[in-house]
Design brief:
With 214 residues, the chain is of the alpha+beta class. It has seven helices and ten strands. A four-stranded antiparallel β-sheet has the order 8-9-7-10, covered by helices on one side. The protein has a two-stranded antiparallel ribbon with strand order 1-2. Strands 3-6 form a two-stranded antiparallel ribbon. The longest helix has 30 residues. It is elongated, with a radius of gyration of 35 Å.
């Protein structure tokens, strides 16, 4: 169903009080349908039987636009002169309203820009890192230490995998391998947290075998 834009305001003025819209000279119209497909505001319909364009919703037309008349190959479309618009602007004193609209537009732009900047900052932040560490974990209660270390922070350790070569090896304190992902639970930069975590790992005599940003 075609949209009805005639109830909209043009800078505070009811659209139907501004007689700006196209008029078609049917004798000149060759039925090319260019105006019909060009107008994005559904001003035109097309009479397929008569092969003529019709102005069906004149007040859907954007005040000041004259694109359809520019593209019409036979100059069949006309508009009132620009004086009509200037006169409307003067008589309705629209510029106070225009300034208000401009302020709203600027505020929206500022919000959009702030969002974009926040998005870029987040994209640039390292919020996930994978760590691989090796060493002897047996008597160190390293997992308990990790758990205490995480308490009250906006970070977590997930996908934890501990590989012990053999049960006998563990008993004999052979080196084991641990892998986990450090993630921020609030999209925070993890690098500061990682610095402290590395200290904990090294304090336990373990070795960081690899670090990978995810
Ligand atoms: S662009 Fe001109 S000639 Fe083509 S259909 Fe519209 S009014 Fe007619
Ligand atoms: S002037 Fe613009 S908005 Fe108005 S009918 Fe033509 S193309 Fe549509």
């Amino acid at each position: 169903m075609a949209k009805d834009l005639s109830t909209q305001l043009w800078h505070g003025i009811p659209r139907t009080e501004i007689p700006w819209h196209p008029t078609i000279n049917a004798d000149k119209c060759i039925g090319c349908e260019l105006c019909y497909v060009t107008c994005g505001r559904e001003v035109f319909e097309f009479n397929a039987e008569k092969r003529k364009a019709l102005v069906e919703r004149p007040y859907n037309c954007m005040v000041g636009c004259s694109t359809c008349s520019m593209v019409c190959p036979t100059e069949a479309i006309s508009f009132p002169g620009r004086e009509l618009i200037w006169k409307t602007e003067r008589e309705h004193k629209i510029f106070q309203e225009v300034r208000r609209e401009a302020k709203i537009k600027r505020e929206k732009d500022d919000i959009g820009q702030a969002r974009a900047e926040a998005g870029q900052k987040l994209a640039a932040a390292t919020t996930q890192m994978r760590l691989q560490i090796a060493g002897e974990f047996g008597e160190k209660q390293f997992l308990v230490q990790l758990w205490e270390f995480l308490e009250g922070r906006l970070f977590d350790i997930v996908n934890l995998r501990l590989e012990v070569p053999t049960v006998m090896g563990a008993k004999e304190k052979a080196p084991s391998f641990m892998q986990f992902d450090v993630v921020s639970t609030a999209d925070e930069e993890v690098l500061g947290f990682l610095k402290e975590l590395r200290e904990l790992i090294l304090k336990n005599g373990l070795v960081i075998a690899a670090e990978q940003k995810l």
